[in-house]
């Protein structure tokens, strides 16, 4: 039986990946900051799907947290065949309203953690001739939005570049770029969503299904939903800044673990 490691695994897109992969028979390693939530999620998944579920408490805004995940990914006796880098967050407010440390934490989680965990996972996958890495980015990668959009753009370019380098190796990489996705996070964070049109919302399970479908087809970029494919296509055509208002809303999120 193969194993998937998912960061930010206790809610939102990460939790949806955990459910879907467990339903497909994969054992899991769940990574997040909240030990109690991790243990509850693990118990539920193990009971529901009959798979082995391991938990790893780690804050990916810290060197120690990233190192703990790296160590698990490099464990040759317990190989990980699928890595889903989902942990992430956004900072509310305009750039100069956000504390510098919060921006540095974002770089740590969105860039350094993804770089280091991907590097930790790939040698074993390549040696075995199989494996997959899904790095969760955002439609904001294609829209001007300060540090958030810049980090997500980095995720897209990094992932697609490595995918080309590993072409033919049996290892697949994908940058997943969802738009607004319905999860429980908006309510938990007390964020109003009444100004977001109904057409803009994606179902979290459909996001994951589309990601896995495109991954199986060897597509290194997945933008779920026809409407968001159109947004990305438009963003690539228009001058920079024309769609900045859309991306400013997309960044008003919070940590996904």
The CATH homologous superfamily is termed NAD(P)-binding Rossmann-like Domain
What characteristic shape results from the CA principal axes?
globular
Q: In percent, how much strand structure appears in the residues?
A: 5-15%
Biggest sheet overview = 7 strands, parallel
- CATH topology, which one? Rossmann fold
Total number of helical segments?
9
Low-confidence stretches: 185-192, 246-254
Provide mean pLDDT, rounded: 88
CATH class: Alpha Beta
Helix and strand run: EHEHEHEHEHEEHEHEHH
Distance between the termini: 26 Å
Number of structurally distinct domains: 1
Structural class of the secondary elements? alpha/beta
Strand order across the largest sheet: 3-2-1-4-5-6-9
In the CATH hierarchy, the architecture is 3-Layer(aba) Sandwich
How many beta-strand elements? 9
Helical residues, percent:
40-55%
Q: Over the alpha carbons, how many angstroms does the gyration radius reach?
A: 17 Å
Structure description:
This protein is α/β, with parallel strands linked by helices. It has a single domain, classed as Rossmann fold, CATH 3.40.50. Helices cover 48% and strands 15% of the residues. It has 9 helices and 9 strands. A 7-stranded parallel beta sheet has the order 3-2-1-4-5-6-9, with helices on both faces. A two-stranded parallel sheet has the order 7-8. Residues 185-192 and 246-254 have low confidence and may be disordered. Keywords: Oxidoreductase.
Which secondary structure elements does this structure contain, and how are they paired or packed?
Blueprint: E1 3-7, H1 12-23, E2 27-32, H2 35-49, E3 53-57, H3 63-73, E4 82-85, H4 100-128, E5 131-136, H5 146-165, E6 171-176, E7 181-182, H6 185-189, E8 202-203, H7 204-216, E9 221-222, H8 226-237, H9 244-250
Parallel strand pairs: 1-2, 1-4, 2-3, 4-5, 5-6, 6-9, 7-8
Helix pairs in contact: 1-2, 1-7, 3-4, 4-5
């Amino acid at each position: 039986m193969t194993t998937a490691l998912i960061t930010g695994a206790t809610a939102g897109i990460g939790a949806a990946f955990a459910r879907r992969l467990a339903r497909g028979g994969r054992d899991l390693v769940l990574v997040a900051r909240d030990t109690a939530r991790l243990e509850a999620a693990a118990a539920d998944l193990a009971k529901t799907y009959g798979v082995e579920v391991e938990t790893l408490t780690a804050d990916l805004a810290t060197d120690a947290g990233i190192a703990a995940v790296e160590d698990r990914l490099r464990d040759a006796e317990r190989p990980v065949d699928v890595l889903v880098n989902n942990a992430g967050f956004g900072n509310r407010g305009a750039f100069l309203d956000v504390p510098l440390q919060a921006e540095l934490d974002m770089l740590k989680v969105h860039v350094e953690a993804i770089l280091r965990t991907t590097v930790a996972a790939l040698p074993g996958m390549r040696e075995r001739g199989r494996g997959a890495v899904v790095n969760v980015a955002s439609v904001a990668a294609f829209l001007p939005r300060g540090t958030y959009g810049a980090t997500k753009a980095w995720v897209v370019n990094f992932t697609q570049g490595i995918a080309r380098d590993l072409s033919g190796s049996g290892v697949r990489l994908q940058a997943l770029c969802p738009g607004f996705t319905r999860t429980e996070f908006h309510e938990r964070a007390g964020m109003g969503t009444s100004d977001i049109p109904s057409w803009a919302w994606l179902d979290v399970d459909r996001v994951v299904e589309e990601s896995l479908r495109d991954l199986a087809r060897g597509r290194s970029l997945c933008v779920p939903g026809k409407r968001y494919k159109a947004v990305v296509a438009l963003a690539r055509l228009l001058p920079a800044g024309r769609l900045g208002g859309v991306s400013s809303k997309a960044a008003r999120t919070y940590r996904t673990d």
